Structure prediction request, 726 residues.
Amino acid sequence: MNGTVKATGSMGRERRQAYMLVAPAVLVLLGVALYPILAAVWLSLHRLILVFGEQRWLGLENYGFMLGDARFWNALKNTAYFTLVAVTVELLLAVPLALLLNTAFPGRGLLRASVLVPWAIPTVVSAKLWAWLFNPDYGLINRLLPGQDINWLGVPGYALHAAILVDVWKTTPFMALLILAGLQGISEDIYKAARVDGASRWRSFLSITLPLLKPAILLALLFRTLDAFRVFDAIFVLTEGGPANTTETLSIYAYKTLMRAGNFGYGSMLSVMTFLCVVGLSLVYIRLLGKEGRG
Amino acid sequence: MRRPLISVLVLGLVLWTLPGCRRKKEEATAAGGKTPLVFKYQPLGDPVAFRELLADFERKNPDVVLTTEALPNSSDVAHQFFLTSLEGGADDFDVLVVDVVWVPEFARAGWIADISGAFPPEVLRRDFLSGPVEAVVVRDEKDQKDKTYAVPWYVDVGVLFYRTDLVPRAPRTYAELEQFARDARAKQPLLQGYVWQGRQYEGLNCNVFEAIWGHGGRVLDDKGRLELDTEPARAGLAYLRGLIASGISPPGVTSAAEEEARRVFQAGQAVFMRNWPYAWEEAQKPDSPIRGKVGITPLPTVSGEPGWGTLGGWQLAVNAHVSPKRKEAAERLIAHLTSPEANVMMALSYGRNPPRPSVYKDPRLVERVPFIASLLGMVENARPRPVTPYYNLLSDVLQSEFSAAIAGIRPPEQALKQAQRQVDHLTGQFE
Prediction:
């Protein structure tokens, strides 16, 4: 719209009609997205333990208890560490992988497809597979590594890193694919011009590829960060949060509180906190992306 | 302008009629006025024998139309299913299987019905093993009466497996177990001593309770309060940690559940294993490297008296939301499935241990599955985990503190103190 056309009667009708047309979609969204979130917030303000069958208004008491709940802070720390390390490593591996997949060589199509295999395997299946590989007694990893056997999933410090390794193995291809899409949007002409100007390959990577790839990278980071922050299945299959909660993430803490203990009030509070963290993260990314768009 | 409005209404109507948005009431509408009965259980293996047992029920109860529905095998997932469906007031199943630690919780939440009328507590006490009865009979504080909420279906118990070719005899004390393990390893250095379950999960709690009981402790005090910060508890947890520290148990036990431990033992790489009796059948398979070299015995203790294994197993209960007519039919099904005859069938066809002590002496059992018959002493000694409605709330706290002690993150005293503090916080809230 360039603003010179005044909203006439027919324009107004069109706009009303547009609203009507999107109304069903908006209603469905409200039903499946907004309602559960509001319900979780509402529950988080109550004491609701299913076994005792009572629901009592607590106000912000659950949130107050959370401030002093060492297990919550431990879970938050684990989640943040997992997200930061996993996503960083994935990015560092995905960019070279995408560059490789973007060059022309025989069998490229096959390689592109096969790179996606780890990502296509259901997480629970691949986590179970890795649990076998990590097994201290008959696992393949200890067999291949020299030196003393390591109890990967049973020793604090190792367990979380083992989980990070599984996540990196699984989702690097996905990130590489997103970045590859970005790479393909960069026109070959720019590189040709750079070559005419005598720029080295490294130079053109730094000055052309990276800046033009930034939106794609940010988008990939946005997807992966949000995903990693809610990590549940891989870690749950590998360790169930053990040993001694050193691999317990916010989602696992929330699941155990909700579904095992039946403590719906406090469990909902944990879910709401996870949600707020994810919203915060996505706002940061969206702002960065917005800047990119304008710049 | 009216058309969009209509489409919204139509959409709403479509959503409303989608299956799952509404739950149909199907009260006694089965063919010919028969009572429909739905049994929710975890499949047992080859279904032929069990189907015959159910068909027998239908023959004897022609007024009932029986349907079975499968549950996931994982106890956690089954619990989650019942938590959401029963809290939501589901009445589309009548008889359900209940893990031994769920009964007080489900009873307190009002999800399973009081069936004392059909199964009076005193009859259960007379006919069944004491451990499972303790778990299914819940004391109602309001009218000071014991009430039955479930009937034991089959039981399980933690036991010690040992290699008859590597040790002179079954160890009776912890000191003997350690000595035997050391001697065996002196001859074969690649052997592991004692494998058990130390991963952070419910099985760890079972192992720790057994160690506490073996050191002369009780986990519940007389008032039903969970008591962890005690001398036997400290000794029990320190003993488990010590097994790893001294190399009797491999460091890998801190990530082992039942199957991880069993595979090591099955491969002939360990002298002792704590596990459930199911491991026996695998050990005796024709191609098993340890076939004929395995013994089973009660867990050791400090004093040398036979140890107390954790009670496991499943019970049958009635959904509290169903009509009296269906409840009555459900009770008949439970009586049928938990009869001595059914107990024998479950042992012969599926290797499930009977909850009635008398059945262990049944000639068919003694002849065809002598292994199960030999478990009688151990199941008689089986102890339930703390019988309290908030066991599932507490279990989570216990798992993480026990795991911290086993993995060497915190000394046992400190882990127990922290566990006690959190337990008191959780239970204090409720009283």
The radius of gyration of chain B is 24 Å. Chain B touches chain A through 47 residues (CB under 8 Å). Chain B has 18 helices and eleven strands. The mean pLDDT of chain B is 91.
